[in-house]
C-alpha cells in the first residue's frame, strides 16, 4: 500500500492544478450556440409570442370574430388617428372593423388559431410519416427499395395542383362525414399538406440511419441481444433528432404558407370562418380604400414564416456539432 | 452515360403511368357532375345520353385506356400533322394524315377523337397551346431575371462571408422565402398601381406588340408579376449559390491557385465559380417545370391568363379532362427535368460516374 501512495505523489506533478470544468450536457451546448444566433433567438421569441397570443388572445380580447355590428362598419385602425383626426377609429376596435362591422383584431386572433393549428398539426403528421418511412427504409433492407421508389414517385407529383384538386374534390364528402364544414376542412387540409410534404424528412432520415447503423455502438447493442424495435427507439432515433427538428421548422413554414394559399385561392375554410389567408383574400377587392386589411394579415403570415425560418436556421447551426465549437 | 440515360428513360415510363393512374383515380372519386351546369328543363334521359356521349357510362378501365390512347397516340399525331402541313419549319415535308381516320358510318375522312374539355368543348391541347405563350413570357422571364440577380449575390456574399453585404443578402433571401406571393402581389399593386399609379395592375393579354408604344405598355404590365416571381427564384438560388461557393472557397485547390500567383478575379470567377455552378445548375434545371406549370397564385393575382389560371378555372368548373391532362403534363415535365438534372450533374462533374 505504501508503495502505491508514494508513486502517486511522484506523478502528482502531472495532474492538473485547477479542477476541470464541470461536465456540460449536450443540450446546454446547443442552447449556448443557439443564443449566439440573433435571428434565431428573435424568431423563436416571435413564434412563442404569436403562439401564446392566439392561444390566450380570445380570453383577453373577448369580442366574437363573427359578431356583426353594421353601424360600426369600416372603421380604420386606431393609428390612422395620428395623421387624420376625422376618420372613424377608436380603441373599441384597435385594428378597425370590416365591411360587416366585424372586429379585425378578434378575427386575426381567431384566424391565427386556425392557421397555427393547421401548421402544427400538418407538421407533426408529416414528420411522423417521414420519420417512419425514413427509419423503415434505412434500417430494413427489404423495405428500402420499395419505400424509396415510393418517395421518388411522390416527389415527382405536381404538388400544388394536386393539393388544389384534392381539396376541391373532397370538400363535400368530408364535410358530410364530420358533420361540420370546419372540422371536415381542417382534417382535409392537414392530411393533404402532410401527405405531400413528408418526402424530404424521409430522405434525410434514411440517409442518416444508413450511416448510423454501421457504427460500432449499434453492433454492440445488437451483440447483447437488443431487439430491432429497441435499437431504433433507444439508439437510432435520438441520433437523428437534429435533422428531424430542422425539417420540422421547414415543415411548419410550408404548412402555414400552403394553408394561406389555399384560403387565398378560395378553396380553404368556409367563408364565415376566419384564417389569415382568408382575411387577406377577402380584403384584396377593397385594398384601395382599406390597404391595412391586406397588410395586417399578410404581415402576420410573413413574420410568422420568417421567424420560423430563422428558428430553423439557428437550430441547424446549434445542432451541428462541427459548427458548435466555433 | 448513354447507358444510364437510356435506363432512366425506360424507368420513367412506369413512373409516369403510375402517376397518371393516381391522378385518374383521384378524379374518379370526385363527386362533381359535369352535367350540373345543364338547365333543369333538359329531361333526365337526355342528360343520360349526354353523359354517355362524354364517355362517362363506360367502365373505369375503359375510360382510363381511352384517355391514355388519346393522350399518347392521338395528340402527338395531331401535332405531327400540324408540323408537316402548316408549320413554317417542317412545312416542306410531305403532308401526313396520322390523326385522320375514316368514319365507319359516312365513310369520310375525319379527325380521331381528341381529349376534349367539358367546359369549352374544344380540344384540351389547343387551349393549352393558346395559354402557353403568356405563361412562358411572364414566368420564364421571371426565372431568368431571378437567376441573373441571384448568382452575383450568391458569389459576393460567399466571398465576403459574414460581411454586411452577406448579412443583408441572407436577410433578403429569408424574406424572399417567407413572404408568400399572395402578399407581395397585392402589396406591389397597392404601392405601384394604387398609390403611385405607375404600373397597370392587370395583365392585358390582348395587347399586340407592334410598335414602340405597345412594347412599352407590355414592359410596364410585365414588371410586377415578373418581380413577384423573381423574388422567390432569387431567394432560392442565391442561397444555393452562396453555400456552394462557401464549400469550394476553403478547398486546397483554391489555395494552390492563389499560391501560384493567379489574380484574385481569376481564382474566384474561373476556378471556384465553375466548380460551384455544378449543384446550382441542377437546382436551376429542377425548377424549370414550375415555369411551364405557371404560377397559379401570381397569375391569379395579376389576372394573367396562363396555364396556372387555366388549371384553377378548370378545377372550379369540374372540367376533369382538362385537369387530368394539365396535371399529367406537369408530372411529365417534373420527371423529365429530374432526369435532365441527374444527367447534367454527371456531365458537369467528372467525379461522378453513374456506371
TrEMBL record, chain A:
Q: Which residues cross the membrane?
A: 40-61, 117-140, 152-171, 183-205, 240-269, 294-312
Please note every region of biased composition (Basic and acidic residues): 15-25
Q: Which GO terms describe its cellular component?
A: plasma membrane
* Renumbered residue ranges of the record's region Disordered: 1-25
Q: How does it sit in the membrane?
A: Multi-pass membrane protein
**Highest taxon in the source lineage:** Bacteria
Keyword tags? Cell membrane, Membrane, Transmembrane, Transmembrane helix, Transport
Where it sits in the cell: the answer is: Cell membrane
Pfam families (alphabetical): BPD_transp_1, OppC_N
Q: Key word Transmembrane helix present in the record?
A: yes
User: Which InterPro entries would you find in this protein's record?
Assistant: BP-dependent_transpt_permease, MetI-like, MetI-like_sf, OppC_N
Residue ranges of every copy of the ABC transmembrane type-1 domain listed in the record: 112-312
Q: Protease among the record's keywords?
A: no
- A biological process term (GO) from this entry: transmembrane transport
Q: What family does this chain come from, according to its entry?
A: Belongs to the binding-protein-dependent transport system permease family.
Provide the protein name. Answer: Peptide/nickel transport system permease protein
Species this chain originates from: Sulfitobacter undariae
UniProtKB/TrEMBL annotation, chain B:
Query: Which residue ranges does UniProt annotate as crossing the membrane?
Result: 9-30, 135-159, 171-199, 278-302, 322-348
Tell me the compartments it is located in.
Cell membrane
Q: Which domain of life is it from?
A: Bacteria
Q: Which UniProt keywords apply?
A: Cell membrane, Membrane, Transmembrane, Transmembrane helix, Transport
| Membrane topology of this protein | Multi-pass membrane protein
Recorded hits in SUPFAM superfamilies, A to Z, give: MetI-like
Give the main location.
membrane
Task: State the PROSITE patterns in the record.
Answer: ABC_TM1
Q: Name all ABC transmembrane type-1 domain ranges.
A: 132-341
Q: Which GO terms describe its biological process?
A: transmembrane transport
Q: Name one Pfam family in it.
A: BPD_transp_1
Say which family it is in: Belongs to the binding-protein-dependent transport system permease family.
Put simply, this protein is called: Peptide/nickel transport system permease protein
What the entry lists under InterPro entries is as follows:
BPD_transp_1_N, MetI-like, MetI-like_sf
The question of whether Transmembrane helix is a record keyword is answered with yes
| One GO cellular component term noted in the UniProt record for this chain | plasma membrane
Amino acid at each position: 500500500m505504501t508503495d502505491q501512495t508514494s508513486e502517486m505523489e511522484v506523478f502528482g506533478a502531472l495532474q492538473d492544478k485547477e479542477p476541470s470544468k464541470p461536465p456540460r450536457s449536450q443540450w446546454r451546448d446547443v442552447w449556448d450556440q443557439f443564443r449566439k444566433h440573433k435571428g434565431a433567438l428573435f424568431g423563436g421569441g416571435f413564434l412563442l409570442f404569436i403562439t401564446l397570443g392566439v392561444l390566450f388572445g380570445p380570453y383577453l380580447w373577448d369580442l366574437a370574430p363573427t359578431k356583426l355590428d353594421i353601424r360600426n362598419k369600416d372603421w380604420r385602425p386606431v393609428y390612422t388617428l395620428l395623421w387624420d383626426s376625422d376618420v372613424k377609429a377608436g380603441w373599441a376596435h384597435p385594428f378597425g372593423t370590416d365591411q360587416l362591422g366585424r372586429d379585425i383584431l378578434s378575427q386575426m386572433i381567431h384566424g391565427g388559431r386556425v392557421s397555427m393549428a393547421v401548421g402544427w398539426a400538418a407538421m407533426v403528421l408529416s414528420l411522423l410519416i417521414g420519420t417512419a418511412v425514413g427509419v423503415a427504409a434505412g434500417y430494413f433492407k427489404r423495405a428500402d427499395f420499395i419505400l424509396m421508389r415510393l418517395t421518388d414517385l411522390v416527389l415527382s407529383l405536381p404538388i400544388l395542383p394536386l393539393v388544389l384538386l384534392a381539396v376541391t374534390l373532397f370538400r363535400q364528402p368530408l364535410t358530410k362525414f364530420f358533420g361540420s364544414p370546419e372540422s371536415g376542412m381542417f382534417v382535409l387540409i392537414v392530411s393533404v399538406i402532410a401527405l405531400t410534404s413528408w418526402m424530404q424528412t424521409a430522405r434525410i432520415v434514411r440517409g442518416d440511419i444508413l450511416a448510423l447503423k454501421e457504427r460500432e455502438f449499434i453492433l454492440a447493442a445488437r451483440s447483447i441481444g437488443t431487439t430491432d424495435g429497441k435499437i431504433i427507439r433507444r439508439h437510432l432515433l435520438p441520433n437523428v433528432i437534429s435533422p428531424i427538428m430542422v425539417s420540422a421548422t421547414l415543415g411548419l413554414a410550408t404548412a402555414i404558407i400552403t394553408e394561406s394559399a389555399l384560403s387565398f385561392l378560395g378553396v380553404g375554410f368556409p367563408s364565415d370562418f376566419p384564417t389569415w389567408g382568408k382575411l387577406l383574400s377577402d380584403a384584396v377587392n377593397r385594398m384601395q380604400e382599406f390597404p391595412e386589411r391586406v397588410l395586417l394579415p399578410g404581415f402576420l403570415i410573413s413574420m410568422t414564416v420568417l421567424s420560423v425560418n430563422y428558428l430553423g436556421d439557428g437550430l441547424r447551426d446549434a445542432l451541428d456539432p462541427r459548427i458548435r465549437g466555433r | 452515360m448513354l447507358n444510364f440515360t437510356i435506363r432512366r428513360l425506360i424507368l420513367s415510363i412506369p413512373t409516369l403511368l403510375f402517376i397518371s393512374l393516381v391522378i385518374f383515380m383521384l378524379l374518379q372519386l370526385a363527386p362533381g357532375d359535369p352535367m350540373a351546369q345543364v338547365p333543369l328543363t333538359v329531361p333526365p334521359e337526355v342528360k343520360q345520353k349526354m353523359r354517355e356521349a362524354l364517355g362517362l357510362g363506360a367502365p373505369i378501365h375503359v375510360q382510363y385506356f381511352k384517355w391514355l390512347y388519346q393522350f399518347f397516340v392521338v395528340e402527338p399525331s395531331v401535332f405531327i400533322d400540324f408540323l408537316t402541313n402548316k408549320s413554317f419549319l417542317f412545312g416542306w415535308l410531305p403532308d401526313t394524315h396520322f390523326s385522320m381516320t375514316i368514319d365507319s358510318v359516312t365513310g369520310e375522312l375525319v379527325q380521331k377523337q381528341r381529349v376534349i374539355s367539358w367546359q369549352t368543348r374544344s380540344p384540351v391541347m389547343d387551349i393549352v397551346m393558346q395559354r402557353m405563350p403568356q405563361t412562358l413570357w411572364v414566368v420564364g422571364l421571371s426565372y431568368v431575371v431571378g437567376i441573373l440577380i441571384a448568382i452575383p449575390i450568391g458569389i459576393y456574399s460567399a466571398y465576403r462571408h459574414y460581411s454586411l453585404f452577406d448579412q443583408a443578402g441572407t436577410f433578403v433571401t429569408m424574406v424572399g422565402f417567407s413572404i408568400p406571393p399572395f402578399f407581395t402581389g397585392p402589396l406591389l399593386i397597392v404601392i405601384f398601381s394604387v398609390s403611385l399609379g405607375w404600373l397597370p395592375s392587370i395583365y392585358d393579354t390582348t395587347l399586340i406588340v407592334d410598335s414602340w408604344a405597345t412594347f412599352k405598355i407590355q414592359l410596364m404590365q410585365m414588371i410586377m408579376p415578373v418581380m413577384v416571381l423573381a423574388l422567390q427564384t432569387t431567394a432560392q438560388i442565391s442561397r444555393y449559390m452562396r453555400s456552394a461557393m462557401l464549400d469550394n472557397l476553403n478547398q486546397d485547390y483554391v489555395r494552390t491557385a492563389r499560391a501560384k500567383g493567379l489574380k484574385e478575379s481569376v481564382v474566384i470567377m474561373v476556378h471556384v465559380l465553375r466548380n460551384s455552378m455544378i449543384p446550382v445548375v441542377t437546382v436551376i434545371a429542377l425548377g424549370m417545370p414550375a415555369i411551364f406549370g405557371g404560377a397559379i397564385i401570381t397569375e391569379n393575382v395579376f389576372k394573367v391568363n396562363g396555364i396556372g389560371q387555366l388549371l384553377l378555372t378548370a378545377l372550379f368548373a369540374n372540367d376533369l379532362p382538362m385537369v387530368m391532362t394539365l396535371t399529367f403534363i406537369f408530372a411529365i415535365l417534373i420527371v423529365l427535368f429530374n432526369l435532365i438534372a441527374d444527367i447534367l450533374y454527371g456531365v458537369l462533374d467528372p467525379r461522378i460516374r453513374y456506371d
